[in-house]
Design goal:
The protein is α/β, with parallel strands linked by helices and about 220 residues long. It has two domains: about 1-70, no CATH class; about 70-225, NADP-dependent oxidoreductase domain (TIM Barrel, Alpha-Beta Barrel). It has eight helices and five strands; from the N terminus they run H-E-H-E-H-E-H-E-H-H-E-H-H. It has a five-stranded parallel β-sheet with strand order 1-2-3-4-5. Helix 3 (about 55-65) links the parallel strand 2 (about 45-55) and strand 3 (about 70-75). Helix 5 (about 135-150) runs antiparallel to helix 8. The longest helix is centred in the middle third of the chain and has 17 residues, at about 135-150. The radius of gyration is 19 Å and the shape is globular.
């Protein structure tokens, strides 16, 4: 792992990396040697913090035997709430920062999709759980309710989705993708102004109803390395 850090430093043309993640651990693989390498890199000043992504609680406990976790990155949003059961409480208990990705559920929480999402045959989003044919109707109806709620307070649904996450216990930061500068700037405006707490409560209620139809498949992406 120390060699991979060196390669990253070379590619980035920098002397240190603020936060170095391990993504998608392989099932049955002892991850402790990788964390030992990252702790060596930390001791040498080559990285400042260590993070993992998509680890189970058991996997985090394993790596904690040999190192300190500073951050945890997880797919988490209004359409995928299963991290609330074990992973996020574990991070809170152990003072591990939670960083969300897929925060807008591959664009679903922008509200841009119709009842027929119109995905092309080769679109990778077919593998994303909320787009599954038996789940999508419930997702669509729930998002329509969220859009109506957003209209009530004259804010885009993306603002509500981002702020809902930032309002959740344990969440430290929210990652938002953007195809261009304009999209990034629009997402940043979500931080402006106040949103009443009852709006977050209503979003949670809508999300609860959707989640009744979303199975706990392990992750949003049907990806099991």
């Amino acid at each position: 792992m120390l060699g991979q850090v060196e390669s990253s430093l070379s590619r980035l043309q920098t002397d240190f990396i603020d936060l170095y993640y391990i993504h998608w651990p392989r099932s049955g693989l002892d991850i402790r040697p990788a964390l030992e390498g990252l702790e060596q890199a930390r001791a040498q000043g080559k990285i400042r913090a260590v993070g993992v992504s998509n680890f189970s609680v058991e996997q985090m406990q394993q790596v904690q035997e040999v190192g300190t976790l500073d951050a945890y990155q997880i797919g988490y949003n209004l359409l995928w709430r299963y991290p609330e059961a074990q992973v996020i409480p574990f991070c809170i208990e152990h003072q591990i920062a939670v960083v969300t990705y897929s925060s807008l559920a591959h664009g679903i929480l922008t509200g841009k999709f119709a009842r027929d999402p119109g995905l092309r045959a080769a679109d990778q989003r077919h593998s994303i759980l909320p787009f599954r044919a038996d789940i999508w109707p419930y997702v669509y109806e729930g998002v329509e309710q969220m859009k109506a709620l957003a209209a009530e307070i004259n804010r885009p649904l993306t603002h509500l989705a981002i702020r809902w996450l930032l309002n959740r216990r344990g969440v430290t930061a929210v990652l938002i993708g953007g195809r261009n500068r304009q999209q990034a700037e629009q997402s940043a405006t979500a931080l402006a102004g106040t949103i009443p707490n009852n709006v977050f409560d209503r979003l949670t209620d809508i999300s609860d109803a959707i989640m009744l139809h979303v199975p706990d498949a392990g992750n949003l992406f049907n990806y099991y390395p």
